[in-house]
Protein 1
Amino acid sequence: MQQKNKSVLFDLDGTLLHSGLTFYKIVNQLKETEGEPLVDFEPVREFSSRGATLILKNCFPDRDENDIDRLKSQFLDIYNDVFTNDLVLYDGAKELIEFLGSNEIPWGIVTNKPEKYTHPIINKLGWDKMTNAVICPDYLKQAKPSPEGIYKALEILDGCPESSFYVGDHERDIQTGINAGLKTIGCTYGYYEKPPQFWKADFLVDKIDDIIEIL
């Protein structure tokens, strides 16, 4: 029987892509429109992996549900227009992807970000030419922390769970990797809520360069 591959799977937002910067700009655009003081990045960062509703509740704490729904509609209208503009990768992400390619290590992405946003971003970055293992919740019965997405990605990559890694910036990502039987790498620079030392990850990294050393 042919030996399966060591593969590396990534969460997207907060792990490779610094998408919180886009959310931050939109929130402060709404703040300005609403006549409120601008916020700093931290209240946006904390919930950037959890969707627009929680970001807005955190940044507009005095607003009721109807107001949050109105602001969310405006937020998404703006996001739909700009989400592929000025994509910011974390320092070292480009080099990490190049390292995986040059060492013939199969890699992919398992994200809770919907397909309508994920694939245009992947295409803009040129990553669609490097991997066909891009798994969004649209394809799944259960999103993370269910291991279903990881199983699908490993099937595409012919990956071996025991020798593969899942990399993420949130406790949910680490639990997903554990549930799938992969080694886990937690990124302390992303959009976590619970402190990383409590995630039970196999490894914690403060910067992307550290991932290369682990691999």
Protein 2
Amino acid sequence: MKVLLLKDVYKLGHAGDIKKVADGYGRNYLIPQGLAVPATPGAIKQAEYIRAKAAATRSTLNEQMSIIAQKINGAVLTFSSKAGEMGKLYGSITTQMIAEAISHKYGVTIERRQIECQPIRLLGEHKARIHLTVDLVPEVRIIVHREGEKIEIEPQTEAETAVASAGIDTEETNQ
């Protein structure tokens, strides 16, 4: 089935695009959620208008979210957890825990669905991508260490180097 997207849909397309999707996906998800309409001749005529309106909305949203993206891009989050001898965690670090840590540390509300990361089940350094908008996807470093151990974080980006040289502590431990 062909649909005209009314809003940006992650991994499918931008508003105003005409896409061919599975019948069930279109009928049961995209259309009821208000993300798309069937691609009829009348709807296709409105595609350019929808595209222009969505581009304007997307640009204003990108401007607002760019401040948040700059705050959290390259951020370092540390988690202490109990782990076995081989470095496997008893439990895992989930996207919900990452979202709460970002919210607590930066005062920015992020939903767990915006975080692209598998549950972390091993000690060490991991990366997670945060989808603020379709165009803005900052990345954060996640360091998981054994409970009771002290760790030293090495800055990797220029921003982190500047923060480290200014003497500001970027480490935060969440339990």
Protein 3
Amino acid sequence: MKARFQPFRLEALVAGLVSLFDHLEQVQFWIKDRRNRYLHANRTLLINYALEEVAHIVGKTDYELSPAFLADQFWFDDEQVLKGHEVHNRIELVGGTNVPPQWSVTNKVPLRDARGRIIGTAGTTRDLGADARGLGATYSFAAALNRMREGYSRALPNRELARLSGCSVRAFERKFRQSFHVTPQHYLRKLRVRMACRALVFTTQSFAAVAVECGFADQSHFNHEFRRQMGRTPRAYRAHYRGAGG
């Protein structure tokens, strides 16, 4: 008599995954529902937010855990994932309200039920400054990424970044895109906008000063690129988050 197949219970599978991720010290792991509320988190994520137990994060959103300008980026990604998209190797600032943001690489995927309906999201993020063994495919770019983080306000041609990575320009561009799904210069533009977000929220610098400090040719270029990435002008972004006490 043929044995009848017995599927795994989703609850048991989730519990097993959470337990597995608890032992990865350099990786934060979480599961959220369709309203972007945390359902599960591993120990590393709890430590990052100075929380003692999973119960302390369940039901919370990123707006209760992180500065508003960071939570907005996380929320935008989650909304895209809930539409069926996936986030692969997103370079972004990650940090709690009382934790200085760190440059991290994030991955997010939709969670589906047995009928294929999206019921939530799951993700991981790891610190780009972690030990080389935890960086995987990104490690060969460590020097280039550090140069971008330290020198984003000036022009950084691919030949300079390729030299730091120990390969030809063509090989560097190909491998970088394979690892991060964007070109080196696209990555640099995203980095400049992320740094501009901080300046707009936490300083009173003029828009022109922020543009120059973050590596844009002029305020017009800054306004165009910022709106393309963030969906609003620098002026509207500052008014929104400073008005919200971000």
